Amino acid sequence: MYAIVDIETTGGHASANGITEVAICIHDGMQVTHRYETLVNPGRDIPVYIRALTGISNEMVQGAPYFGQVAHEIYQLLHDKIFVAHNVNFDYSFLRYHLSASGYDLNCNKLCTVRLGRKILPGLPSYSLGKLCHHLGIANASRHRAGGDADATAELFGLLLRSDTNKHILASLKHNSKEQNLPPHLPKNVIESLPLMPGVYYFHDQKGKVIYVGKAVNIKKRVRSHFSGNNPNQQRQEFLRNIHHITYQECGTELMSLAMEAVEIKRLWPKYNRSLKRFEHRFGLYTYKDQRGYLRLAVDKHRKYADAVHNCKSLLEGYGILNQLIEEFELCPKLCFIQKNNDTCTGSLKEQCACEGVEDAEAYNQKVDNAINSLKEQLPTFALRDKGRNYDEQSCMLIENGRFYGMGYITNDFQVDNFEALKALLLPYPDNGYIRNLVLAHVERYPAKKLDLVWEMAGV
Length: 460
What we know:
Layout: E1 2-9, E2 19-27, E3 32-39, H1 48-54, H2 58-61, H3 67-78, E4 82-85, H4 88-101, E5 110-112, H5 113-120, H6 129-136, H7 146-163, H8 168-172, H9 188-192, E6 199-204, E7 210-216, H10 219-225, H11 234-241, E8 245-250, H12 254-268, E9 283-289, E10 295-301, E11 310-312, H13 315-329, H14 361-378, E12 382-387, E13 393-400, E14 403-411, H15 419-425, E15 427-428, H16 433-445, E16 450-452, H17 454-457
Parallel strand pairs: 1-4, 4-5
Antiparallel strand pairs: 1-2, 2-3, 6-7, 6-8, 9-10, 9-11, 12-13, 12-16, 13-14, 14-15
InterPro entries: DnaQ, GIY-YIG_endonuc, GIY-YIG_endonuc_sf, GIY-YIG_UvrC_Cho, Ribonucl_H, RNaseH-like_sf, RNaseH_sf
Domain GIY-YIG: 196-274
Function: DNA polymerase III is a complex, multichain enzyme responsible for most of the replicative synthesis in bacteria. The epsilon subunit contain the editing function and is a proofreading 3'-5' exonuclease.
């Protein structure tokens, strides 16, 4: 038995909206044998645009039962049936959420007439309920009302049952079939073609625009996990409705997929990504020459269009490094913006310091250069070699002078004895603190994968 359902609501997600109308047509596979319809008091104001769309006003539902008062009857109609709806995950998530709030656990097999329509009646210009019914000659005198849409969906479902010569409906109801959990506009074959290996995947909307980028150890398994469950929140429901296609890039390792995800989120700025969009609050050690010709060092926030002589995770770390340089190379704390008062210089040279004009600019600038060079000498340059996408290659990620240079793939027999030759094989990317820290943490955990390149650089 099938329960063909349509509901009207106060908004697009169950966790923050109520139901205003429910209609259920019980179908035995041949015809509708029972029909149920009721208005529901959502317990909240119906937005103006919803009133305009459905024609259901606050006055109409004022005397209607609350959902809790009809929950038992609705559950009895649904719980032992196959739940059918046009874009089934929307109606199912709403009813499951509100039935759960009333103490009923709905757990049904589902069929989506959008997905079934695409399979059984391929090639139609649109699979929205209104346009599909118009194309097929199915009348609906009460569009955007639960009763009218449920009746139209029941007639559509009957037509699909009669036209299903390839048994798509039976295949969708098999115990191991997860097709009804998929977004309504995403073909099943797209999921089936995904690889079982690490990489980055992209969800595209109807126009082909990337709306989400994710990384995975197993692309197919991770993508499927997005569509399991019946989370009723607004973002998930909107997210699922907007997925029309999936593409991917295979990566040799999980680490490379993490790095590629960060790069692609920054490049594409997808609508539904959140975490890696955040601005990286990092600092740097910068240098410039003042009007008197003295080189000055300063800790400042990361500047988009200026290169730091050294990057720092925090302001505190930056000041710690700068104080160490001041002590080791006898730099002036005033010229480094550590001492900000007009008292006598607290540096090692006191009254003989550059800030007093006693030490000339050339001598002082040499000390600043020496300090900067000492920092650069401490920055690591190494390659991280790991498994590739197949047996004929290896993945490689390069850190150059403490910065993320790029990544790519090299042959198994490639000898890392020429720094420039290696760089030519890798795709460069903008330096990224998040990726840099991932690589540094990985080589600390797996030191055998690290190839120190300092000695190769000496011959460049």
